[in-house]
Every structure is written in C-alpha cells, then in structure tokens.
Structure of Endonuclease/exonuclease/phosphatase domain-containing protein:
Amino acid sequence: MRALVWNCRGAGSPLTIPQLKELVQVHSPSLIFLSETKKKKSFINCVKQWVKFDELFVVDPVGIAGGLAVIWKKDIQVKSILFTSFTIELLIGDHRGGRDWWCVCVYASTDDKIREQQWRVLERRTQVWGECWALMGDLNDITSNGEKWGGRIRPASSFESFNGFINRTALIDLGFVGVPWTWCNNWNKEGEIKERIDRVLGTRQWCGNFGKARVTHVETEASDHCALVLDLTPVETPRKRRFTFDRRWIMQEGVGEVVQEAWEMDQQGSRLYKVQRKIRQVRMNLLNWSKKLNLNSKKQIKQIKKEIQEVKGSQGGEGRAKITGLKRKLVEAYRREEVFWSQKARIKWLQEGDKNTSFFHASVMSRRNRIGLMDLKEEVGSGARMRRRLGRKL
C-alpha cells in the first residue's frame, strides 16, 4: 500500500487538481488524504473521478475553513470509518498477514490551545484503535527548533505539549527522505520560514508490522506544504556504487570549470544542507562529465600500439614522425594507467585493511630477499676481485 498525504490549501485552486493528478501518476498511491480542502463532498466526488479512484469519505469544511477527504481504491479493504472535526480514522484490513490497523488522518489546529485539546482527544481514542495504528497528516507543530529554519527561536516550553503527546502514546517518527521541511511561508530570503509540521507517526506494533515503511517529502507548487508519500512496502532498489574521485580527472582540461559550475549552483535550506547538496551536485556533474571522456587507459594503450604497428607496416615517408607522436601518447596512456591502479590499490587497502597484510608481508619479504641477493652478489663479486688481485701479485 502507498498513501499520499497532502495539505492542498484549497482543492478548488487552479493548480491543485493538475498537481494532484501528477502526484498520482508519478507515485501511484492507492489512498489519498487531503486536508484543508475548503470544499464540500460534491466537489471532492468530482476530484475522486478525476484521479480515477473508487471510494471516498469527506468531512465538510466549516464555512470556507478546513475540510478533510480520504479517497481510496477498491483494492484497499476499509472495514470501518470513524471521524471527528479534525480526523478521519480508517480500519484497514491487511490481506497478506490478516493484521488490521487504524490509519488515522489528522489535520491539527493552528491554535496552540485548541491543538493541545486535540492531543487529549487523540489519546482517549487510542482505546478504540488498540496497539496497531499510524497517525499521518498536518500536525501543525514541531518537536524542537531543529525542525525550524528561519524566524524566531521558540522557547523549549512551547514543545512540551506535542512531545508529551508523542511520549504518552509511545509513537515513533518514521523519518523522511527528501527536503527536511514540509511547509514554507514562501517569503523572500530574510523573512522565509520553513518547518517540518507534516509527518507520519506509528505505534511500536505498527512499526514492527511495517518495518520497511518509508516516508518521502515531495515539494509542490500548488500548496505551501510538501506532499508526503508513505510506502509500506518499498521496493528495494539496487545499491548504487560508492562515488570515488578518479585522479585521472585532474589530468583533463575543464575539470576545474565542472567543479566550479556545480558548486556555484543555488541551493535552498540550512547552511549544512546547502553544503551537502553542493557536494552531491559536484559528484553528479563530475560523473556526467566523465562519461563523455575516454578514460579507459587499457583500451587506449592497445589502440595506440595497434596504430604504431600499422604505421610501421606502411611505406609512407612521414612514418617516423607519426610513430614519435604515437609514442608520446603511449607514455601518457601508461602514466594514466599507473595512476588508476595506484589509486585502486589504495582504495582496496582502505576497504580491506588487515585482509591485505599477507600481501604486504609477502611484498616486504620479497623486497628483503632481493636486497639480500644483491648483497650476496656484491660480496661474491668483491671476493673474486680480491683473489684476482692476489694472483697478480703472486
């Protein structure tokens, strides 16, 4: 199962529906939770048809404020639905293991006092949900100043209510993939504030049942909130090869410009996040740039040798000059090959450490044997010279 959780800030906005269709097409969710829809059931029913889903449940807004909607496909077994003014609670049957769980979709108030009362309501409702449930949505609060970028620093006491709710219900934050914030006021630079106020929390039993569950933050243009994509059974992607800086790149013209261009690209976020993004951009640009280069020294050596033999076999008068030029290229190719293998040996030693000690011991013993043999030859040679001198004197 894959769920899309999004505070769309008005389902009737001209950009909301096209972006929702795009999110559905890209992430293929089977359940969608929309908060702050500002639209009644008749309109949300049209939204359901536009995204080609089968079922829906709606909590109408009060006037033009609020509004919740859950839309899902028929392959999800919804056994029961409960709701309040700020929640939609679905009892979902698990076809595989037969373990039912509650999907609690929440849109918390922006008012601190009301939100504190809502935490108390949710605590009481845990008696209905049991031990296996997950809470997701716009919770309109953060756990610390580490989840806030820009604006005034909040006092530690302002986090007690939300953290107290999390601790009393023993919820576990699933974390995220993507940008660290989920909401931005979209102001320019100095006045810009970003916070992680949308999240997914699960009980210990729920996290045990869905140990591989993953949450991804997806930036959107239609709303000032990111969309959350909750994937309960993410497909394991092949592990990417570790990035290694190829020392042969230094020998190529233009490498400095590639690094400079990547580093100067504008990145958004905290200082540390910007640095991380810049480093990642440099890696990507270097890899893309290197693909256009022919850095396979072994193939180059083979090709140059072939060209030298062809020139030698020809009867042209400029053969010697061509061979000289090709030999220069061959020297450069050998030098690059040496750099490549010296770096590879260093990497292997760093990775395997003591696993290579036998090789290094063998190398040292071999060197010592060579030195000993040279000393013996020197000693034998000096003895022979001494006997010859004595023979001449006698």
In short: The longest helix spans residues 357-393. The two ends are 103 Å apart (CA to CA).
